[in-house]
Design brief:
single chain; mainly alpha; 77% helix; globular
Length: 268
Amino acid sequence: MTAIIFRELKDNRKGFLIWVVAMLGLVAIAAGEYPVVVESGDAIMALLETIPRIMLIAYGMVGMETIPINSPLGYYLGMYMWCSLVAFTHAAVLGTTIIAKEERNRTAEFIFTKPYPRKTIIKGKIIAAVLNVAAMTLTAIIANIGMLATQAKGESILGAIGITMLAMFLIQVLFLSVGMLLAARCKSNKRALSISVLFVLTSYVLMVIIEYVGTVDFLGFLTPFLYFPGAALVEKGFNIFYILLTIIIAAVSCHFTLSMYQRRDLHN
């Protein structure tokens, strides 16, 4: 299985590097704008009061009524949403492509005629995908500490980075597992990929709608974006229900990925 894992990591390195550059670029832009936001604190806060609430929610400022955006913590939590969007989309796309790429590239006969059971090959792909997701999380941690936390004066945001990045990793695994399940279920790789990306976008839109309505918070389980919102994590910590729900969704998705792919007719 080790050979399969390393092969998958090697095959996915180019795509992974593109997403890493996207994450680093996002954090770099945020870090570059941070001094301007701090210096114009009062003006920024006054401007935010004129922006429609739905826009504030869409920009990741949900639940931050007591955390000023011009503070180091507030600014980081505002950017956490955008880091999450990049990470979650990467995870969903990776889950789809890592399972179905042999059929897409017409090389299914090459790998599936190796002296490994199909179940072992899929397990190796799952492990490699989780390692990719972990590496993306580590990239986000290093970038936020190196570019943003170092500028925070008088307030440490290392604790907030730690807890939110752990949450981001868990949700990445969820999106990853759903992407793999879609790849195993759909006959067309393009269709599976489209549904995976649509799942991420729909989850984001649902988050905006639920937070904007405000009276349907009990529907938060419908969107992974509301499992571990940044501000709630920092103030209250993890919600055990959503930890269990995330684990269950990921485990069930991986189980059905394995079972479906073992019965799948591969097309070269």
